[in-house]
Amino acid sequence: MEKRRIRVLIAKPGLDGHDRGAKIVARALRDAGMEVIYTGIRQTPEMIAEAALQEDVDVVGLSILSGAHMTLVPQVLEKLREVGMGHVVVLVGGIIPPDDVPKLLEMGVYRVYGPGTPTSQIVEDIREAVLHSASSAQLEPVP
Q1: DSSP codes joined into one string, 19-62
Q2: Mind listing the pLDDT tens digit for each residue in 83-101?
Q3: Mean pLDDT computed over every residue of the chain
Q4: Which domain holds residue 59?
Q5: From CA 28, how far away is CA 30, in angstroms rounded?
Q6: Under 8 Å between Cβ of 138 and 3
Q7: Number of domains forming the structure of the chain
């Protein structure tokens, strides 16, 4: 069986146009040996789910600074399930009020990150989530 690297889709759902954090995270994941697909700004939940399917990703990272996370995240999760990608690890980063974090986790989000989170923590969490899952046997370890 051929091994491949962890594939991560970084997306900016909604109308939020600020993508500096998403690009920093994308670069850190790439530097950690992961394959990163960055979709750019102003993506719809449908576009994100379709990109996740087409790119056969293991992880979807959503960057949301607009405050619309309680609307957009459930929509993205639903669209991922609709296209058969409900198994992917979903991470959310951005300006998320602490009271909303448990709700997002209950919805199925793996981790939520706020401003100032070390990128090394995100890398470690992705490795933990993906490499230790039963479906990741075909993935190669990333140093």
Answers
A1: -HHHHHHHHHHHHTT-EEEE--SSB-HHHHHHHHHHHT-SEEEE
A2: 999 999 999 999 999 999 9
A3: 91
A4: 8-132
A5: 5
A6: yes
A7: 1
Closest residue by Cα to residue 89 from 135, 143, 22, 41: 135
pTM: 0.90
Mean pLDDT of 55-65: 96
Three-state DSSP class for 14? coil
Tokens matching residue 65: 């600074």
Amino acid identity, position 66: S
Query: How do beta strands 89-94 and 111-113 pair?
Result: parallel
Give the pLDDT score at 132: 67
Angle between helices 45-55 and 69-82 (to 10 degrees): 40
Q: What is the pLDDT of residues 27-43, one digit of tens each?
A: 999 999 999 999 999 99
Any idea what the CATH number is for the domain that residue 37 is in? 3.40.50.280
pLDDT for residue 31: 98
- Tell me how far apart the terminal alpha carbons of the chain are, to the nearest angstrom: 20
Identify whether 138 is part of a domain.
Answer: no
Does residue 2 fall inside a structural domain? no
Residue 137, in any domain of the structure: no
